[in-house]
Amino acid sequence: MKKLFIFLCAGGLIFSLTSPILAGGIINKQNFSAEYLRSFSRNSATDAADVVVYNPAGVMKMKDGVYVDFGLFHALKTYTNTIGGEEYESDVPSTIPGLFAVYKQAKWAGFAAFTIPAGGGTVEYEDGNATTFAIGQGFIAGANAQLAAMSVPPAYWYNSIKNQSLEADSFTYGYTLGGAYEINNTVSISLGLRYLDAQKKAKGTATISAPPGPIPTITDQTAEIDYEETANGWGGFVGVNIAPTEELNIAIRYETNTELDFETKVNTDSLGMLTDGAKEREDLPGLLGLGVGYTISPKLKADASLTYYLEKNANWEDDRLKDAGNSYDLAIALTYSFNPKLKGSLGYMYTDCDIDPDDMLPEAPELDAQTVCAGILYEVTPALSLNFALMNTFYDKETRTDGTILDKNITGLGFGIQYKFN
Asked: Measuring CA to CA, which residue among 371, 358, 369 is closest to residue 404?
């Protein structure tokens, strides 16, 4: 039974939610802007302020001025655990903001951003899920062992789980500050820092019951747990943008691993399985982003992106993740200019998480996925532009060795607004 509760707590029980919103790495997420949501390929982009987190050196291709870009991603997400033919579901939506600012002048630029690079949502399994089911089963086994020692006949032992529930959320807030410099018309470079403030919460219950019997003290018993985990840390990044021709742009960025030591605050623990103040390390992995953009014609542009997450270099004390990684996203997008004010985009992304189903979090399983998206960019004025996006992620179902089927689906809407101050 102790192992079951440790499993509930390990990794924060929570998505990053380990993998709450959208496709991405096991921990890392990239759904920062509406521009991203309408294309999924921004690693070589140079056309909006959100590039400070996708291609920071690419800001040197923007016109001089001050840019502010704000976006929202609203995700309609459904996660399911199917156990013995019975489906347990969470369908709580999430809304994720992103804010970007750039000051660009001649051969240099400074920039800042607020993003959520991990987590970003809530799950609510009102009728329980695979975790609470496992807790209940362990609870039954432990309670029945005590009844057996009291010579209580098996006919009166605990035999059912009722009133299961689980609620969890995870948010990692990222604060980015950096700068870029143009070496020449072909090459520019960038350098910066990001501070992470990570917060996780989990609350779960499982009640077990026994048939009526001769011993009045054999009544319903409830296991309850309620805890929080917090951590913070610093990471850095570097980037290079290379434009060998007017039509071709190539970009590389590297983000370092961010050390995160999560400290536990226990609010309720009916079985005494947690230690208040205990710490466990679960880093946000570094990554390598590669992007290529090519202007096929004055109206049509193609972009390809590879984001490779360096999970094997991260320090994870959670045994659940010791064999995981490295995962990656591979994306391609086409953008067509209908006229000087209106552009449309189509995108596709494949995500490989490289994690065994038995090691996935039932609350938000880290499933391989394919994502499609579409959107428009409308330039209201030379200074004001709007982005609208629609996306859907199709996940590959996985079955654990205990027969539990893990599945999820996400449909998302994105909106962004950018204003340029001369």
From this structure: 358
Query: What pTM value is reported for the model?
Result: 0.90
Helix pair 2-9, 130-149: axis angle to 10 deg: 160
Distance set, CA 175 to CA 112, 195, 199, 276, 318 (Å): 7, 5, 14, 28, 26
The candidate with the shortest Cα–Cα distance to 14, out of 227, 197, 174, 182, is: 227
φ/ψ (deg, to 5) at 192? -170, 180
Instruction: Please give the single-letter amino acid code of residue 302.
Output: A
CB 262 within 8 A of CB 282: yes
Q: Which of 30-44, 219-233, 307-321, 383-397 has the lowest mean pLDDT?
A: 307-321
294-334: pLDDT as tens digits: 999 999 999 999 999 999 999 888 777 777 779 999 999 99
**What superfamily does domain 2-421 belong to in CATH?**
Outer membrane protein transport protein (OMPP1/FadL/TodX) (2.40.160.60)
> Within 13 Å, how many C-alpha atoms sit on residue 379's CB side?
13
Give the containing element (helix H, strand E) for 104: strand 94-105
Is residue 380 pLDDT above 50, yes or no?
yes
Among residues 41, 140, 127, the alpha carbon closest in space to that of 88 is found at: 127
Cβ contacts of 321 within 8 Å, gap of 6 or more: 11, 26, 282, 311, 355, 359
3-state secondary structure of 16: coil
d(C-alpha 393, C-alpha 371), whole Å: 4
